[in-house]
Amino acid sequence: MGLLNIKLTMKNKWVLPSSLAAVFLVLISFVPPAKKITIYLIGDSTLAIKQTKAYPETGWGMPFVHFFDQQVSIENRAQNGRSTKTFVSENRWQAVMDSLKKGDYVFIQFGHNDEVIQKATYTPIEAYEAYLLKFIVETRSKQAFPVLLTPVSRRQFDASGKVRETHPGYSNSVRSIAQQQKVPLIDADQKSMALYQKLGPEGSKLLFNHLEPGVNPNYPDGKIDNTHFNELGAREIAQIVLQEIRNLHLDLVNHIIKPPVKNNNK
After folding, report:
1. Is 113 exposed, middle or buried, given 0-12, 13-18 or 19+ CB atoms closer than 10 A?
2. Domain ranges within the chain, ordered by starting residue
3. Is it true that domain 37-255 has CATH number 3.40.50.1110?
């Protein structure tokens, strides 16, 4: 009986280490899935998701979703006609805060509706800056990352064919706040103006909703709109934003989808 016990004990001495090794291998082979990053887009109609009835009007946030890998999701919370003031008063900002988590990003682009005195959305510059600061401070309180964007320019040219600045006060405020608070800045105003200037007064029309009567069923009487982009314009602005993400060396660069490598041997 004693001999049998000794043999069993010796056998167990061999079995136990191999069992632990198996468990260890299972544990080290389990890699928890990487936490997803969410980019929240907050702003107005120039980046918002459009309904089919508005086609070909397209917010630049719509093509922007296709630039990143599966570890990044885009939450486009921008809405037509909103300013910094109404985005807060309608609890749209609170909805973002309720779901914002560590490591996420908030891209902030307002100005088109803040600056129009005749609109209920009008926000004086001092209040505009206070709202931008609120977005920044509260985003950081969640250990997330704010990114400021100046409002994209409207399409306007003077008689000599030079593009005009359309958001001077409000864009300057964004630049100032970004510098003071050390927030990454994407100067969409200046970058879009440069694009329009490159294309010229006629070529830049191709980026906007310039429709002849009877061409589009959504606009049977035609439409001349130098504020809102069509599909081409939205893609061009989205690519500007993407390039600025690279220039700023944001960590999001690691999640930009790389173009397929061309095989020159074919």
Report:
1. buried
2. 37-255
3. yes
